[in-house]
Amino acid sequence: MNPKKEVLIVEDSPIQAEMLRRALVREGYSITVARNGVEGLSVLKDLRPTLIISDVMMPEMNGYEMCREIKNNDALKDIPVVLLTQLYEPEEIIRGLESGADTHITKAFDMDYILSKIKTLIENPKRFQNMPEKKSIEFEYEGKHYNVHSGRTQAISFLISTYESAVWQNTELQKVQAQLSNLNETLKEKIVELKASEDHNRIVLETASDGIFTVNEYGIIDSFNKAAEHIFGYSADEVIGKNISILMTEPYRKQFDGSIERFIETALQEIPGNGREISGLCKDGSIVLLDIIINDFLFGNKRMFTGTVRDITHRKENEEKLRQAMENADTANKAKSDFLAGMSHELRTPLNSIIGFSEILLEEMFGKLNEKQGQYVSNILGSGNHLLSLINDILDLSKVESGKMEIEPARFVLKDILDSSLLIVKERAIKKNIDMDIELEFGPNTAIIADERKFKQIMFNLLSNAVKFTPEGGAIKVRGKKITKGGANYVEIMVEDTGIGIKSEDIPRLFKEFSQLESPYSKQYKGTGLGLALAKSLVELHKGEVFVKSEYGKGSTFGFTIPILFPDYSGGSKGKCIKYS
After folding, report:
1. Rounded to the nearest 10 degrees, what angle do helices 531-541 and 371-402 cross at?
2. 8 A C-beta contact, residue 426 and residue 528
3. Torsion of CA 138, 140, 144, 146, to 10 degrees
4. The dihedral of CA 340, 346, 348, 354: what is its sign?
5. Burial class of residue 505 in the structure, from the number of CB atoms within 10 Å of its CB (0-12 exposed, 13-18 middle, 19+ buried)
6. CA–CA distance, 312 with 205 (Å, rounded to integer)
7. Contacts of 174 (CB under 8 A, 6+ apart)
8. Which residues of 407-425 are buried (b: 16+ CB within 10 A; e: fewer)?
């Protein structure tokens, strides 16, 4: 191909012009672009292109007018002119013939087709050149007068272009019809899927255990499922189209002004929680207690509301029965605690006399006792002390349960209290040849703020338990360290022993009042079953926790954590009494 061949493109669309320019440049043509007919004629003053390709609809001067000017100019008339047109209307064909254009290419054109046609025009221009006869054809079409000078070649070229346009449009139409057919099949599939989804949703809605209904923004009921029919006693046909207020009791019916949104924001807003508890009115006039959740959604351009209701009448009745039962249990428990406290006080007076006189007799202040008498008095004293310990534990537990236990927080050195606690049980440990040791991970002057007497009682109960259940020749170790939990500082105390141990299934029963575990060893140890329960209660009064780790047959570790600074402590060497329940 001769690269010097020049093509003038006259096109007002920058995109169409650039597409043509790039395609022709790749084929080796030299390209000049004009934006309308006026600009195209101006370019032709200095340029004689091999071919002119022009759009027809352009501002200032269209392609028909420009082509007519070119064909009426002796210097330019031999340049082949190709018009780009739709050829959709008869008027376009007439105007094309009238303008004297050599040939036409239809939009939207196929680039390979246009390049082939341009190549043919350039290589054999006379084949397409317009050579009109001297005679003209005059006619009218839709009220307009036309005088067409056109040769047979030009007319045939126009007819061929028109036919090609029709073929192309028919091909495109077939493609669109195929696409529409595919879309139609897809639509059918979607309709089937949608119907299946609707059937599924309807089944779910109708089989739901909760009542579900929908209303519009004015409160008109749109749907009402089977569960809602069961709750309210209405059939769906009886309520659909009716106002939701027929299901409302007072004061809700009076507060409903026809706007669901305002009703939610006013009347229902006063009821706390996502699920609101309200009363509903049944068809027979009875009242039903409901848990209701309301959500809104858009259906097209309409705002709708879904109400989900659950009948909680029986649940509320059971809750009321449970509340009354708990009140009765609390009353009975308080009466029990008051009775135990009163009886404990009444028993301690004569018991102290028994213990006191037994001690006097054992000291032989009023004369010698023989061996038999000494043994009997010792048994009386031992049984008295055991009974006094039991009464004291019962009294403390009853105070805790009745909320009368008083805490007196004060600052004390932790090591001193632990040493004195070990000293209390040391004599019994020595009798059983039990080794006792203490290991602390804090300094000897570390102090905490707690109730000193009750801290000693906790330690005494844990250590007494360890000595009781540790065989002769065993060992007991007290460990202590500081820990941090939830951003607060605690002290952790553990009492480890090499005693009989506890089965894992028995551990949950350890801290229950009057509960003793059965084991091959336990029958030889006397106890009330209150020591660990009381220790747990006292630790919890300090806002602490107890824990236990044990391996059956090898030993146990009982421990507790309490805050280093007692909660609600206001300072001073001795804190005021604080009652905790």
Report:
1. 40
2. no
3. -20
4. negative
5. exposed
6. 20
7. none
8. bebbbbebbebbeebbeeb
Q: Are 502 and 559 in contact (CB under 8 A)?
A: no
- Beta-bridge mates of residue 498: none
CA–CA gap between residue 511 and residue 533 (Å, rounded): 4
Say how far apart CA 203 and CA 267 lie, in whole Å.
Answer: 33
CA distance linking residue 460 with residue 424, whole number of Å: 8
Q: Which two tokens stand for residue 499?
A: 């005693």
Q: How many beta carbons lie within 10 A of that of residue 454, not counting itself?
A: 22
444: three-class secondary structure by DSSP: coil
Q: Are 466 and 505 in contact (CB under 8 A)?
A: no
Nearest CA among 498, 478, 479, 502 for reference residue 550: 502
- pLDDT score, position 532: 84
Contacts 24+ apart (CB under 8 A), 161-166: 161/87, 161/103, 161/104, 161/105, 161/106, 162/87, 162/93, 164/106, 165/86, 165/87, 165/88, 165/106
CA distances from 283 to 208, 211, 230, 515 (A): 21, 15, 11, 56
CA distance 170 to 348: 116
Verify cis geometry, omega within 30 degrees of 0, for the bond prior to 108: yes
In the prediction, which pLDDT does 439 show? 93
What's the number of CA atoms in the CB half-sphere (13 Å) around residue 34?
Answer: 28
Give me the residue label for tokens 């009875």.
286
CA dihedral 20, 22, 26, 27 (to 10 degrees): 20
CA gap 64, 98 in Å, rounded: 8
Segment 386-392 long-range contacts (CB within 8 Å, at least 24 positions apart)? 386/526, 387/347, 387/351, 388/348, 388/351, 388/352, 388/355, 389/528, 390/528, 390/530, 391/344, 391/347, 391/348, 391/351, 392/344
Q: Residues with Cβ < 8 Å from 404, sequence gap 6 or more?
A: 579
Amino acid in the structure at residue 299: F
Q: Mean pLDDT per 10-residue run, the chain (581 residues)?
A: 76 90 90 94 92 91 91 89 74 73 72 79 62 50 57 58 62 81 86 81 78 86 89 91 85 68 59 65 90 82 85 86 87 74 72 81 82 82 72 66 73 91 87 92 90 88 90 93 90 93 82 58 55 86 91 91 77 48 42
Can the peptide bond before residue 251 be classed as cis, meaning omega within 30 degrees of 0?
Answer: yes
Phi-psi sector, 388: left (phi>0), alpha (psi -120 to 50), beta: alpha
Strand pairing report for 103-106 and 81-85: parallel
Distance CA 556, CA 102 (A): 112
Q: What one-letter code names the amino acid at 442?
A: F
Q: Are 354 and 387 in contact (CB under 8 A)?
A: no
